[in-house]
From TrEMBL:
Residues 33-168 form the DinB-like domain. This is Metal-dependent hydrolase. GO terms for molecular function: hydrolase activity. InterPro entries: DinB-like, DinB/YfiT-like, Put_metal_dep_hydrolase_YfiT. HAMAP family: YfiT_hydrol (MF_01256). It comes from Fibrella forsythiae.
Length: 179
């Protein structure tokens, strides 16, 4: 991977649909469980100067990334619930680049960290005891015409949380902001 690719995809590309072992499902659920705590511990005491630093050239600021994770995971939670309660619903995509430009993306990160903490509490509870049939329930994403299972969503958002956590953690490492 080239340097810019490594900055964009610090843990590699997004996973593609597959079948998942019980161990992989448990690891994905654990990652989703830990995401809010890890992100909060990393950035909660950062100054505005740090929060307004892009994680890579032409990338979002740390502040925008934190707000994006909350936005994205709210959408994923709703999509999960739709898949569990409707027959292959067509979900509503959103323009994440445009959402990142909205005025609320300039707020302190505390509200988005609180959203993530409470959202993940509900989301994890919803995901914890799903049967294999429920994990196989689907929704259709009209943007790419791909069908996702709930198990795929679990894998995708385990990756997504860690992907953005690593954007920020590696920025901190490069800039000597650790500790």
């Amino acid at each position: 991977m080239q340097n810019l690719d490594l900055l964009r995809y610090p843990i590699g590309p997004m996973p593609s649909s597959q079948s998942y072992t019980p161990e992989q499902l448990a690891a994905n659920l654990s990652s989703i469980t830990e995401c809010p705590r890890k992100l909060t511990e990393l950035v909660q005491t950062w100054s505005d100067s740090r929060l307004d630093t892009p994680y890579r050239p032409d990338g979002w600021t740390v502040r925008q990334v934190v707000h994006h994770v909350a936005d994205s995971h709210m959408n994923a939670y709703i999509r999960t619930r739709l898949a569990l309660t409707e027959d292959n619903p067509r979900i509503s995509p959103y323009e994440e680049q445009e959402w990142a430009k909205l005025d609320d993306s300039t707020l302190p990160v505390a509200p988005s960290l609180a959203i993530l903490t409470n959202l993940h509490l509900r989301w994890v509870r919803c995901l914890q005891h799903l049967t294999s049939d429920q994990l196989g329930r689907t929704y259709l994403h009209p943007g790419n015409q791909q069908t996702y299972t709930v198990a795929d969503v679990l894998a995708l958002y385990a990756w997504h949380g860690e992907h953005h956590y690593q954007h920020i953690a590696r920025l901190a490492q490069r800039n000597g902001w650790e500790g």
